[in-house]
Specification:
4-stranded parallel sheet, alpha/beta
Length: 144
């Protein structure tokens, strides 16, 4: 069983969209969750994120959660949205260093390793980020 944990800042935009995208693929033997480095527990996904997921007929029943030791232990692969997220995780949870990657790094990219943050942007910005995440997750699945 592979357990994939997507991590961003507040767990309301990028990581919930990534979680929904991967879940929608119904990959046998893969479980998926998301969390945020600075998330408050129990917040809904952002309005635009929910709208994009609805447009794409993806389940978006989401409550934000803060990254915990329990989530770190649960995950077999931790995929972050930025290099800063990766560094923060490794600093706080050094035991996670071997299984923590930026999503772009995991897919083999070597430059510009951050997924664009749509927070505060309009619906078009969220659509671009959703497409970026979808393309990256398709590539990541070849390695998962």
């Amino acid at each position: 069983m592979k357990r994939v944990l997507f991590v961003c800042t507040g767990n309301t935009c990028r990581s919930p969209m990534a979680e929904a995208i991967l879940k929608s693929k119904n990959v046998e033997g893969v479980e998926v969750r998301s969390a945020g480095i600075f998330a408050s527990n129990g917040n809904d996904a952002s309005g635009h994120a929910k709208e994009i997921l609805t447009e794409n007929k993806m389940n978006h029943d989401h409550q934000s959660s803060s990254l915990t030791e329990s989530e770190i232990k649960w995950a077999t692969i931790i995929l972050t949205m930025t290099s800063a997220h990766k560094e923060a995780i490794i600093l706080k949870f050094p035991n996670a260093s071997q299984k923590t990657f930026t999503l772009k790094e995991f897919t083999g990219e070597s430059e510009n390793l951050d997924v664009s943050d749509p927070y505060g942007g309009d619906i078009h910005v969220y659509r671009r980020t959703f497409k970026e995440l979808g393309d990256l997750i398709d590539k990541a699945l070849k390695k998962i």
